[in-house]
């Protein structure tokens, strides 16, 4: 019966559910996760987010800096628990992907996880001018996690300089 074994093995391999790994749990990553879950209930969806926040709204940063709310969990529209419980999405917070290979990722917790499909939703990086500006009191405004550090020192400052007059710079200036 060698081919029976082969046939069983073939069906076993092909019945394995596909796994989608998403790197980044911001608006893009969680929208993709939800959409994939809705379209393919049979897929396993795993999201890695390097901070403790997912589905976060950086547009709330100026209001947080202004002190209009203190609970930084309010940056999150939905919590990791919600996504696990209600949508069956495996969200792994405080776990950064540090290596991507063909069919697998490795995280800073030493986990190696295989993927059939990979989604990169890691956002953008603020453009820092090529001038020597570094130090404990220099910040970029990009992720809610940065806002927590910024607010901690902001209130003890007498003056603040802002580089960049796009809407983010102007919104922060007006707080
Ligand atoms: C102050 C401010 C105000 C804004 N106001 C508005 C507004 O009013 N309207 C509007 O439409 N947009 C606004 N935006 C822009 C909006 O917030 C962004 O367009 C949106 O957050 C982009 O979502 P994203 O998921 O692509 O990226 P991000 O929000 O940057 O999410 C990427 C995620 O990936 C994670 N990540 C990165 N690398 C790794 C890794 N290796 N492993 C695991 N996780 C990783 C990051 O921690 C992050 O959580 C504003 C932005 C700011 C900063």
Record the SSE blueprint.
Layout: H1 2-15, E1 19-23, H2 27-39, E2 44-48, H3 61-66, H4 80-87, E3 90-92, E4 97-101, E5 104-107, E6 112-114, E7 117-120, H5 144-154, H6 167-173
The structure holds flavin-adenine dinucleotide.
Task: Describe the structure using short key phrases.
175 residues, alpha/beta, FAD/NAD(P)-binding domain, 4-stranded parallel sheet, 7 strands, 17% strand
Describe the structure.
The chain is an alpha/beta fold and 175 residues long. The chain has one domain (2-173): FAD/NAD(P)-binding domain (3-Layer(bba) Sandwich), CATH 3.50.50. It has helices at 2-15, 27-39, 61-66, 80-87, 144-154, 167-173, and strands at 19-23, 44-48, 90-92, 97-101, 104-107, 112-114, 117-120. A four-stranded parallel beta sheet has the order 3-2-1-7. It has a three-stranded antiparallel beta sheet with strand order 4-5-6, with no helix packed on it. It starts with a helix and ends with a helix. Flavin-adenine dinucleotide (FAD) binds at residues 23-29, 48-51, 58-59, 61-62, 96-97, 121-123, 141-143, 168, 171.
CATH architecture: 3-Layer(bba) Sandwich
Compounds present? flavin-adenine dinucleotide
Structural class: alpha/beta
Shape: elongated
Mean pLDDT: 90
Largest sheet: 4 strands, parallel
């Amino acid at each position: 019966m060698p081919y029976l074994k082969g046939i069983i093995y073939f069906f076993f391999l092909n019945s394995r559910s596909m796994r989608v790994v998403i790197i980044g749990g911001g608006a893009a990553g969680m929208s993709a996760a939800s959409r994939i879950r809705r379209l393919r209930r049979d897929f396993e969806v795993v999201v890695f987010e390097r901070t403790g926040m997912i589905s976060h709204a950086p547009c709330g940063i100026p209001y947080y800096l202004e002190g209009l709310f203190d609970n930084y969990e309010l940056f999150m529209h939905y919590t990791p628990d919600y996504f696990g419980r209600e949508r069956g999405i495996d969200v792994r917070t405080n776990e950064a992907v540090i290596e991507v290979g063909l069919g697998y990722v490795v995280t800073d917790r030493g986990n190696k996880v295989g993927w059939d499909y990979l989604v990169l939703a890691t956002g953008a990086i603020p453009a820092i001018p090529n001038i020597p500006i570094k130090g404990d009191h220099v910040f970029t405004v990009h992720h809610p996690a940065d806002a927590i550090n910024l607010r901690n020192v902001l209130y003890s400052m007498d003056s603040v300089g802002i580089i960049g007059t796009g809407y983010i710079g102007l919104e922060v200036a007006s707080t």
